[in-house]
Amino acid sequence: MTQVPAFTDRVETPRLMDCPNWVYLLREIDSLYRFWSDGGSIPIRSHRKRVRDRLSATIAKNPHLIDRTASQKHVTAHFSRALDLGERAAMQGMARALREVKDSLTWEYGYEKVSKSLGQKYAYCEILGPRGPVQCDTLILGFVLFAPNTTYPQHSHQDIEESYVSISGAWSENNTAVYAHGSLIFNRPGDEHRITTGDRDPCLLAYA
């Protein structure tokens, strides 16, 4: 008797290059850290190089994508407006690339407990990191969204350096300046910082 071969329903986990919209978004971030100015700052120049080197290595590996459940928060009601503002100015490529994946983003708070007022005005989403959706163990990339007239409390990260790049909206860190689209702000490990946003429009920042 002829034996019938067995078939399985196993579905191959998609890789980065199977999902062009994620690739285009990562390339927009790469451009920010590759071609925009460091303002003559050696620490910022070094940070930008670390980000783009790790990002380039990740893209070259074509990693598997982690299936994360998309989720919304109260503040994401402002997301479309933030993207509209971004598409009007120098960050239009980034805003358009982000719009293409907006239905796949997992917005969260990052805290077990968050005050009611902050919970209505803030959330972030990761796009690359150990938890995905683009898997990477050497770098975390994402976006943080603030509603108008938000104060994010003073905080620091003891073992983490980070940078924020303005995609849209106006904001200030530690009351030292007002930043608009295209600005890059660098925080060394342990730097205390407090964020406030303008009262008319939401603020969208990329972070690394």
UniProtKB/TrEMBL annotation:
SUPFAM superfamilies: RmlC-like cupins. One of its GO terms (biological process) is methylation. GO terms for molecular function: dimethylpropiothetin dethiomethylase activity; methyltransferase activity. It comes from the Bacteria. InterPro entries: DMSP_lyase, RmlC-like_jellyroll, RmlC_Cupin_sf. Keywords: Methyltransferase, Transferase. The keyword Membrane does not apply. Gene3D superfamilies: Jelly Rolls. This is Dimethylpropiothetin dethiomethylase. It comes from Yoonia maritima. The lineage of its organism: Bacteria, Pseudomonadati, Pseudomonadota, Alphaproteobacteria, Rhodobacterales.
